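hiii so um. not sure if this is the right channel but i have a protein structure encoded as tokens and i wanna go backwards to a sequence. like what aa goes where. can anyone help
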């Protein structure tokens, strides 16, 4: 019995009810739009407050989108894992144990289809033909507009803000790394990043700062699997200040995250970001108080080890490389630099002495280079390690020892990733007690090694170290350097600047300690040789600390 609207009079109850319903729908629509707008603002604003209800809703939505996308790619996450930003997660989006987790339990299964893999060629093209950094390809993908609408957006949204990598520091802050292993590495990295930006983004809206931060984001999340990839959930777990409780590893065409020890409910899942303090600072921009097994100091051939100065430079370099006495620098962009690495427990001293053998006997390099091809072919045909045989022949010719005896020592203590140099140098030390030629060779090697360590200390301290007692001199120099670097740690200093100064301070102190120990060890080795009362067994025991 309702009349059509054309026949209704103004103010009729039917028209009023219809107008009221329309107004209610409009109010609901505006309220819903305002609610979504507030959620978007809460999600993208800088001062994100987890207590905000809008932020909590946006967080849950982001987590659900990530999990749905991950399952569509064929991934799997254990029900024992909860993804959250709440405590005890230290920073950003992390994972917490819902219940007790056993050691060896698989928590994440990540197929290659769910990983953002960089192209096999790394960087592509470029007008200036500068060496391409390993993060360049993925950094350009993150900055491209295609990423916003691509299928990788749920993964890209989980990447944290750019890490404070050293190439994003100011020039004044980068000066704090001068003399350390990272000084030259960061200097070349800054130059590479600028060349890449000029090649690809200078005429576009992307600034140099934005590109540098994109490379920092990739560097802090890139893993070596599949030739370099950003792996979901591996990029979510925070760094462990102590032993980590989860380890990721490649299994065929997938990556698995496994618990390496029992985990109690409510405990945050953590992993190890790096194997050394220098790598942690380079990729993440902060320093951890824990000690790393791979902490080393590099002695650069041609700078600290001034050995390649003769006509037989190429022959000596080939000989030392074949015997693995020197190796290419592991840092990105320094593949043309050869180094000898000294570890915190004395690792590398035997290789440093081996370089001294070759440097003090230039005819060894020329003679070995003439026979290198036939000897290496014979070694490979017999299935032996060519580097062990090359090391044995270098020591035999330089120190005047029996070649067959040196080969037997190298094959007994080398192979399967083991280092034969400590045993070979120890044999030379034993023979030096009775033979003048062996003693002269060992004295020359010790002199060259000590000079290399002193040059490296000079670069680190900004001047040649004094000849006082090492135990007294270096701590004083380290304390002065530490006082000079704390100029920016007054109250009110930004937190990031404090973290940068602390990281540089820890790295410099670590390298000073390693070099001081190496300097003291070389003096003890020489003193042991000068002790006429020591017999062969005592000498062998004293030199057993050589690694």
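sure thing!! here u go:
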């Amino acid at each position: 019995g309702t009349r059509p609207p054309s026949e209704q009079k103004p103010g009729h109850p039917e028209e009023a009810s219809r107008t009221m319903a329309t107004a209610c729908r409009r109010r609901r629509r505006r309220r819903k739009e305002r609610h979504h707008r507030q959620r978007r603002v809460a999600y993208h604003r800088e001062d994100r407050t987890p207590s905000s209800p809008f932020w909590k809703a946006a967080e849950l939505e982001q987590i659900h989108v990530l999990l749905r996308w991950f399952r569509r790619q064929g991934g799997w996450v254990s029900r024992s894992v909860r993804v959250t930003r709440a405590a005890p997660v230290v920073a950003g989006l992390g994972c917490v144990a819902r219940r007790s987790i056993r050691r060896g339990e698989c928590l994440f299964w990540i197929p290659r289809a769910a990983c953002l893999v960089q192209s096999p060629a790394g960087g592509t093209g470029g007008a200036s033909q500068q060496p391409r950094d390993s993060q360049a390809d993925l950094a350009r993908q993150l900055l491209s507009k295609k990423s916003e609408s691509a299928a990788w957006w749920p993964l890209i949204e989980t990447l944290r803000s750019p890490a404070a990598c050293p190439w994003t520091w100011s020039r004044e802050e980068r000066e704090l790394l001068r003399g350390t292993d990272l000084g030259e590495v960061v200097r070349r990295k800054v130059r590479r990043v600028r060349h890449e930006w000029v090649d690809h983004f200078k005429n576009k809206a992307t600034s140099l700062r934005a590109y540098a931060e994109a490379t920092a984001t990739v560097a802090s999340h890139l893993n070596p699997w599949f030739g370099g990839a950003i792996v979901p959930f591996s990029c979510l777990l925070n760094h462990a200040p102590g032993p980590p409780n989860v380890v990721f590893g490649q299994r065929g065409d997938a990556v698995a995250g496994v618990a390496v020890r029992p985990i109690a409910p409510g405990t945050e899942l953590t992993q190890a970001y790096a194997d050394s303090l220098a790598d942690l600072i380079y990729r993440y921009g902060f320093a951890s108080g824990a000690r790393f097994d791979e902490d080393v100091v590099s002695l650069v051939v041609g700078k600290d080890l001034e050995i390649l100065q003769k006509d037989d430079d190429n022959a000596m370099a080939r000989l030392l490389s074949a015997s693995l006495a020197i190796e290419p620098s592991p840092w990105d962009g320094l593949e043309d630099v050869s180094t000898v690495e000294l570890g915190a427990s004395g690792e590398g001293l035997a290789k440093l002495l081996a370089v001294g053998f070759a440097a003090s006997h230039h005819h060894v390099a020329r003679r070995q280079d003439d026979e290198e091809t036939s000897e290496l072919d014979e070694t490979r045909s017999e299935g032996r390690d060519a580097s062990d045989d090359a090391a044995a022949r270098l020591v035999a010719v330089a120190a005047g020892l029996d070649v067959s005896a040196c080969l037997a020592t190298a094959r007994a203590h080398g192979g399967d990733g083991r280092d034969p140099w400590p045993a070979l140098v120890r044999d030379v030390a034993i023979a030096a007690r009775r033979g003048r030629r062996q003693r002269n060779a060992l004295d020359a090697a010790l002199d060259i090694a000590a000079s290399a360590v002193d040059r490296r200390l000079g670069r680190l301290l900004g001047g040649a170290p004094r000849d006082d007692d090492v135990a007294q001199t270096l701590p004083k120099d380290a304390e002065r350097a530490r006082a000079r670097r704390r100029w920016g740690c007054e109250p009110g200093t930004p937190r990031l600047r404090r973290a940068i100064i602390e990281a540089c301070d820890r790295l410099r102190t670590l390298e000073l300690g390693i070099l001081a120990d190496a300097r003291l060890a070389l003096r003890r080795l020489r003193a042991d040789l000068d002790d006429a009362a020591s017999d062969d067994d005592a000498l062998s025991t004293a030199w057993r600390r050589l690694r």
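oh and The CA atoms of residues 487 and 493 lie 10 Å apart.
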